[in-house]
Design a protein that fits this description.
11 strands; 196 residues
């Protein structure tokens, strides 16, 4: 993916691996969204950079067989949050975005309206995605819902962020969805009085 030069920076392993370290994984994949030129990379157990994704707008979430990666990109000017499968060089092999998935969720009873007074919005992906043995991908997304007064002990309407699990087939079409709002007690006060 390119030569690591002085602009890339140095990495130090704070605690060197010893005999107790896992031998099952020889690479560490991590994302560093705060780095201006690079977001995702893989190192060996000593911190030597072995690979990096040369596009700072994509964050690798999972290594796949055959030198492929699942990546998320956040909303940026002119781009909606997306889920992509890329090769080692960062070339897109397949991709979908949150708008396409939100449209498909209507058949599952979830209507996404991402504007003021929209009531609920499928707003993006977060944390992880994984490829299953059948080729489907499970991805984690966010569903923000405006709940009327009385939710979480509030006298005002409350914006609550819930979680969606998308089951996407090989063509990245929604086959199933799990919605945390089907299981949450929205009357329970939020932890540490947290708000969206």
């Amino acid at each position: 993916t390119g030569i690591v030069d002085k602009n890339f920076g140095r990495f130090n392993v704070a605690v060197a691996p010893d005999e107790r370290a896992s031998k099952s994984e020889s690479l560490v994949l991590f994302t560093s969204p705060g780095r201006p030129a690079i977001a995702s990379m893989a190192t060996d157990m000593e911190g030597n950079v072995l690979w990096y994704l040369p596009t700072p707008d994509r964050n690798a979430t999972r290594m796949l067989p055959g030198g492929r990666f699942l990546t998320f990109s956040a909303a940026t000017a002119g781009r909606t949050p997306s889920l992509s499968e890329v090769d080692l060089l960062g070339h897109t092999l397949r991709e979908t975005d949150i708008v396409r998935l939100a449209e498909q969720l209507e058949e599952f009873g979830i209507k996404s309206v991402c504007k003021t007074n929209g009531q609920q919005c499928v707003s993006g992906f977060h944390h992880d995605a994984i490829e299953l043995p059948n080729g489907h991908i499970i991805a984690i997304g966010t569903l923000e819902r405006v709940i009327p007064a009385g939710a979480q002990g509030s006298e005002d309407p409350v914006n609550i962020a819930g979680t969606l699990l998308f089951d996407l087939d090989q063509d990245l079409q929604v086959k199933w969805v799990w919605n945390s709002f089907d299981h949450l007690d929205i009357k329970r006060a939020s932890l540490a009085d947290g708000h969206c």
